[in-house]
Write a structure and sequence with these properties.
alpha/beta; four-stranded mixed beta sheet; 33% helix
Length: 581
């Protein structure tokens, strides 16, 4: 890999195409059950197609800095469009295809209003749908260009000035409020810095084999899954996200068949695979080549790691292949991790002390296991009291502040927010830092992430993290067919647990709600909890699978959950004015 100042994605792809033009870079399987590769691109083909599209965009008059809205189904055409944006010095705006759901339409409309794109890039089979959506939402005049056009000019006939590290590569929209979308301004330099950090964790394998199903509109799917193997000179086997959700075990089967070395996913994906794959199915796999299993984008559960490693140990999977990491879009992607092959960092701590903001080791029963999200490099992470902005000593829980070359410039056209979030300084004058909004604690070089400030549940002077309560609900499920959970508190610290349940007949829901409420009260000392049972899919999630607790809180308060059964704590009916139904 050629590294050095001035490098950008365009330089990286040019280098790969010149040195390895015939080496296959990308492959796509549309049907995981069938398992056949339907599309392939070598490094030479990827560079050629991307440069041709870039030449067409330049010829059409789209100037550097213009935003290009990327609306693509699963497949390899997205990669061509993204690299074409780099060659043409356009700012890529990955976005979800228009869907029928009001939430999806509102989110896409908010992104378009904020980014003000000059064009849309897509594929021919999606063009008519996109044109209908554009016409119905006031964007009829927005040019809609497909990547497959045989009339592309030759790049040799249209000189392309390659980008610089300071040029913006993309606006990465975060999975927050649909009414106030925030596009993270990620530069070419940010990307190269973060890709090199990922490469260092994975072990700098120049022909690494990667397999993944994460969507391109999410930072882990775009940077950690698509751009990383191109940067390293490796190979990506791309799968559709919905195919994984329907057939999670097939992901593992394809990893085994294609001797995959690296794959990334949120915690829920590993948990799902461990639950739906039988012992006999696991024994038929060969996962001995899987050296790096990145786990990030949501809280990492020690039970999930143990369950997955135990289930797939007969297939050759090793616990040390797990690479728990921490990151966020505002820092491009990854912030902390650990070199592949090293044991997963763990700490067993006193949960009561942790609730009071202190990391205290504990032996024996009752301890809480924390999974390290990796090591802090070059003091790029600081733990700070979010109120006083005073740096905290090791062992004290506070807000995670981040600095370094991967930290982006801020949110697109949000100057008033950027000064507070991306230009934070401590009381002793250190900075600027990125305020992540995440809570964590440092133990030497290890970083343990404990939750989100905005989701914190405060009870009797103790700080409780919703993720812990949601995990407890899953453990209490028994024979009930539980799905996802969302736990949150309302203004007066009353706790509400929303729990998905599958199936049509649930005659014992009253007893189940009472049992869950008692269980949470006893385990966490929070008093009686309101329990709401809802249908599968009712718990709102981000594109990366994180629970949108703020959205669930709002739906609860506005009686928008359409519950199957509700058990309200004393005083909650009066608080709401009516039962949420």
């Amino acid at each position: 890999m050629v590294r050095g100042p001035g490098m950008t994605l365009a330089h990286v792809l040019n280098d790969k195409a010149e040195r390895h033009p015939e080496r296959e870079a990308l492959a796509f399987i549309p049907d995981m059950n069938e398992g056949k590769i339907a599309d392939r691109l070598t490094f030479g083909q990827l560079a050629e197609r991307s440069r041709r599209l870039a030449a067409r965009l330049a010829t059409a008059g789209f100037e550097p800095g213009a935003r290009a809205l990327l609306l693509f189904p699963s497949g390899l055409d997205f990669a061509v469009a993204f690299f074409a944006c780099s060659y043409a010095r356009l700012i890529a705006v990955p976005a979800p295809l228009p869907e029928r759901s009001p939430t999806s339409i509102q989110r896409l409309a908010g992104m378009v209003a904020d980014a003000e794109p000059a064009l849309i890039l897509t594929v021919e089979e999606s063009r008519e749908t996109i044109r209908e959506w554009a016409a119905g939402n006031g964007y009829r005049t927005l040019p809609c260009i497909t990547v497959a056009d045989t009339a592309d000019p030759s790049p040799d006939d249209v000189p392309l000035e390659l980008p610089t590290p300071d040029d913006l590569a993309l606006l990465q929209y975060t999975s927050g409020s649909t009414s106030d979308p925030k596009g993270v301004m990620v530069s070419q330099g940010n990307l190269l810095s973060n890709l090199d950090l990922i490469d260092s964790f994975v072990g700098r394998k120049p022909e690494i084999r990667v397999c993944g199903w994460l969507p391109h509109i999410h930072d882990m799917g775009l940077i950690g899954q698509l751009l990383y193997p191109v940067y390293a000179g490796g190979w990506l086997l791309q799968l559709p996200p919905l195919e994984f959700l329907k057939r999670p075990s097939r992901w593992l089967a394809l990893i085994a068949r294609h001797r995959i070395q690296c794959a990334a996913a949120p915690n829920f994906a590993y948990d799902l695979c461990a639950r739906v794959t039988s012992e006999d199915q696991a024994a038929e796999l060969d996962l001995s080549h899987w050296e790096t299993a990145l786990n990030g984008a949501e809280p990492i559960n020690d039970r999930t790691l143990e369950r997955f490693a135990k289930r797939f140990a007969p297939a050759g999977f090793r616990m040390e292949s797990f690479l728990p990491c921490y990151g966020l879009a505002e820092a491009t992607l990854i912030v902390t991790g650990r070199p592949a092959g090293r044991p997963v960092g763990k700490a067993t701590v006193d949960p009561e002390q942790l609730a009071h903001g202190r990391l205290a080791p504990m032996t024996g029963a009752g301890g809480k296991i924390l999974i390290s999200s990796g090591t802090i490099l070059h003091d790029n992470v600081l733990i700070v009291d979010p109120e006083s902005r005073m740096p905290l000593a090791d062992g004290r829980v506070g807000e995670i502040w981040v600095t370094g070359a991967s930290v982006s410039r801020g949110y697109w056209r949000k100057d008033e927010v950027n000064e507070e979030i991306f230009g934070a300084t401590t009381t002793d004058g250190r900075g600027p830092y990125l305020r992540t909004g995440d809570l964590g604690v440092r133990d030497g070089a290890e970083l343990y992430v404990t939750g989100r400030i905005k989701d914190l549940i405060i009870s009797n002077g103790r700080n409780l993290h919703p993720h812990d309560l949601e995990c407890a609900l899953q453990e209490m499920a028994g024979d009930l067919p539980f799905g996802s959970s969302a736990v949150f508190a309302i203004e007066d610290h009353q706790v509400v647990a929303v729990q998905e349940i599958r199936g049509r007949q649930h005659d014992d829901l009253a007893q189940a709600a009472a049992r869950l409420g008692r269980g949470l009260a006893q385990q966490f000392g929070i008093g009686r909890t309101s329990v709401v049972f809802v249908r599968p899919g009712a718990v709102r999630k981000t594109t990366s699978g994180k629970t949108r607790r703020s959205a669930m809180r709002q739906l609860f308060l506005e009686s928008g959950l359409d519950p199957i059964y509700v058990s309200l704590a004393p005083g909650m009916s009066e608080r709401l004015g009516k039962t949420p139904s």
